[in-house]
Each structure stands twice: as C-alpha cells, then as structure tokens.
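Late entry, written up from scratch paper. The run itself happened at the end of the previous shift, but nothing got recorded in the book at the time, so transcribing now.
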Amino acid sequence: MSTDIAHINLFDPEIQEDWYPSYTRLQEQAPICFLPNHNMYIATKYEDIRYIVRHPEIFSNQQGVLTRDPLLADPEARAIYAEHGFDRMFPLSADPPIHKHYRKLIEHAFSRNGIRKYEPFIKQAVVALIDEWIDRPEIDFIEEFCAPLPRLVIATVLGFPVEDIPQLVVWSAAWVRVWEGELSKEDQLDVARKGVEFQNYIIEKVREKRVNPQDDLISELAQASLNGERPLQDDEIISIIDHLFIGGNETTTFAIASGMWLLVKNPEQMAKVRADRSLLKNMVEEVLRLESPTQGMPKIVMEDVELSGISLPKGAVVHVRYGAANRDPEKFACPHSMDVARENAGSHMAFSQSIHSCPGATLSRVEMLIAFEQLLNRLDDIEFTPGKNDFSHAPGMVLRALNKLHISYKVIG
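Output as recorded:
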C-alpha cells in the first residue's frame, strides 16, 4: 500500500465529513483496498461495484457476521431481543433464491404504478408543509420539511396512524444510531429496548389488521403467504415493515436535504432548473449521485474472486462504496461537479442496482420530484441563513446525512 493512502481511515469522522478526496485517492491507487485494522476490503470503482451487486452468488448480504444485527455486539443488548421481542431478520436483503419470494410481496406497492396512486397525497402533504412556514423569512429546512414529509408518506403507505408518527420517529432515530459507529454498552441497550418497542408496536398493528384489514401494506402482509406455501410469520412481517419504514423515512430525508444544499451551493444549476422544469427529474438523479444517502454496505465473499487485480478470499468482507462509484471519473465526467443536465446521471448507485436495489427507490424519487417542484414554484432567492449552518454531517460508514440546514428565502407571487 502506498504511503499516500496508508493513512486513509474511512472510520475517521473527519474523513467521513468529506469522503470524496479519500475516494479519489483510493480509486487512483488502490481501487480494492484492504484495511487490516478492520479486516475488510473497500471497493471504490464503479465497474467493480457493478460486478459485485450483479453477482449475489459471489457477494452475499446474509452470510456469516452479516446474518443477525452485527452492529449490536453486546450480549445483553442481543438478549433484549431474544427475551422481549423477535429475532431480527433481513428478508428483503436475503440472498437468492428466497430473496425473490420476499421482494414479490412488496413489489406492486412500490412499483411506479403502485406509487402513482399516492402522488396526489404526496403533493398535498408537500403543499401543507410549505404552507406552515411560507410566511416566515427562514426555517430549519430539515426539521420543518425534509424530515416530516417522508415520515408522513411512508407511514401512510404502510398503514401506521398519523398520530403515532412522533413515537415512530423516536424508534427510527434509535435504529439509525447503530450505523454511526461503535456504540457504548449503554447506547446499545437503549437501541435494543427501543427496537423491541417498535417490534411489539408493529405486531400489534399486524394483529389488528388481520381482523380489520385496510388499504395499506401492513394489511396485505398480514394476509400474505410466502410463495403461496405458508402464511408469513410474525418475525418476517416485523422485519419487512421495520426495513421499509426506516428506509422510506431516513434516507429520503437525507436526500431532500442534500438536494437543497447542492442547489443553493450551485445557483447556476438551480437557475437552469427554474428555467426548464423538464430538468427536474434529472436533477433528482444528479443529487442522488453526488450525495448518496447510503454511502456503502458490506458484503461477504462466498468464493475466491479477483477484482482490479486483487484476490479476495472466500469469507472476506468487502465494503461496497456506492458514494465512491458515483464519483468515479471513468463513469461520470467531472464527477465532483453538479450538472442537472448530465446525460448519465441516472446510472448512479445511490440505491444500489440489480436484485438488491432499494425497494423504495421509486417512492423516494417521486417524493423528491414533487418536493422540489413545489419548493421552486414558491420560493425564490433561496440562500443559507447566515450564522446558522456549519454544514456538518452525522458520522458513520453507511449513511450520509446533514445535521441541520437553515435556509432563508423570498416568497414567489
């Protein structure tokens, strides 16, 4: 390993604040890089990652240390699930062939046609949120827009009562903490307790909807069978709903916030979208490319394989860096620049690709599209509120999230 990259520690919060210079050095000097202190490989090149995600038989989501809650290492924290909750599973991330049977259960709800019926509701929610603060000169954009919108939408799609959202937020925030880095014993116990509370809440709703089904996904799963052979078990339903709520809530929040951050930093790009609204859809893809809300995920190597001239042994862990792939100069010209007219922006890896792509990707895109359409219709002269932003991000190897974003603006019309 060259001395230029030997000091790169992707677990360092300072590097996590600005991943991209480190990604560039790794791509140039060690696209498949072994981190001995963490006993894992890091993959940063687009074509390598594309190969990885398209070969789940070689690069597994579910084997070995990834099988059960790897980030809750404390035995007492794990015991809380065993004694008071349900086994944590990851059925939507399962390996083939079982993978397709679980994904089939939710595909229609999150397909383009499935999401279309929610578009009027999403627009109504966006407009209502803007109405709450439009007459004020500045807002905490994340707290007052980015966070409440996805929570409301995914809660509605799943079938959670709107009045329960404040408590759902508490459980969601606890779940996300495991991705920030190593947690203390006390923190792990707190995360486990809140996780069990969420599990028991979910199963209560499932049992209610078995008796009184509604037009929502929990009702469908409560009545569903796996591959037509047996009813879904409680722990399977809990894990699916848990996965969808967190994924449909947190990452879309991060993406909308990053979108506004990028537009205000690049006013010439915002001006292009204002002048030509047909660019909105591509702008959303460019935002996802530049600031992927999921920066990477680990996989287990199931057989000896070679990537970029490096041999990866069976059993190795490889951390797939989607955020690095999305700024690979061999795939994207001027990869660190925002270009709302970029022709291949939609080739990004923000939602991964192939069979393990994010099931809520279409919903997230639709929310972002409607959100920015309405924001640009109603706000002008958007700028960062002086003295209220440090543009810092939450630490962690997986998620990319601004801590806060205060904006000022003028009202159009």
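The chain has one domain: 3-411.
(Scratch paper discarded after transcription.)
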